[in-house]
Structures are given as structure tokens and as C-alpha cells.
Specification:
three-stranded antiparallel sheet; single chain; elongated; 3 helices
């Protein structure tokens, strides 16, 4: 799964807005720039990362790979197959 990094930008009016970046270093640069421009600092580091949502095809491939494993019981295999069928119906 891909990762996306963020910095929470101080809106100046009590609001906050996330800015998203492909690299942590970019989020840190954004944070440093805000500090230099506005002299405001959050009480703690406001950078971090989140998982990028999976595409339909990626999630389907992940579930199909899990279903192909030998160690699942009938209940788990049925649950995986049901989820796979539901995803395929979305296409």
C-alpha cells in the first residue's frame, strides 16, 4: 500500500487544513516554511502519514491472494469469496 504524508496547516482563524505530499521531507519543509512566515508553531509536530486508499483492482487482488492460501477454514473462505463477489459486482 502506498503512503501519503501530510502537514496540518494553521488556517489562522481557528481552522486547520491538511496538505498532502508524496514525501515526508516535503511535509517538513511546508511546516518549516509556515513557521518562518507566520512565526506560529503547533504544540507538537504536525506531520505524519496515512495509507493511500486502495484501488478496486488492488483490493480485489489482495483478497484473491488471501483466498488462495491453504490455511483458511470454510467460514473464512466463504467470507473472502463473498467479499470478492461484491467487489466484482462493482465493476
Amino acid at each position: 500500500m502506498n503512503k501519503i504524508y501530510y502537514y496540518v496547516v494553521n488556517g489562522g482563524d481557528g481552522s486547520a487544513t491538511p496538505r498532502f505530499f508524496e514525501r515526508l521531507e516535503l511535509a517538513e519543509i511546508c511546516q518549516d516554511l509556515e513557521l518562518e512566515l507566520y512565526g506560529e508553531e503547533w504544540a507538537e509536530d504536525c506531520t505524519g502519514l496515512v495509507d493511500v486508499p486502495q484501488t478496486t483492482e488492488d483490493y480485489l487482488a489482495e483478497l484473491e491472494a488471501e483466498l488462495s492460501l491453504d490455511y483458511w477454514g470454510e467460514r473464512e473462505r466463504t467470507a473472502y469469496q463473498k467479499a470478492i463477489d461484491r467487489i466484482k459486482a462493482l465493476r
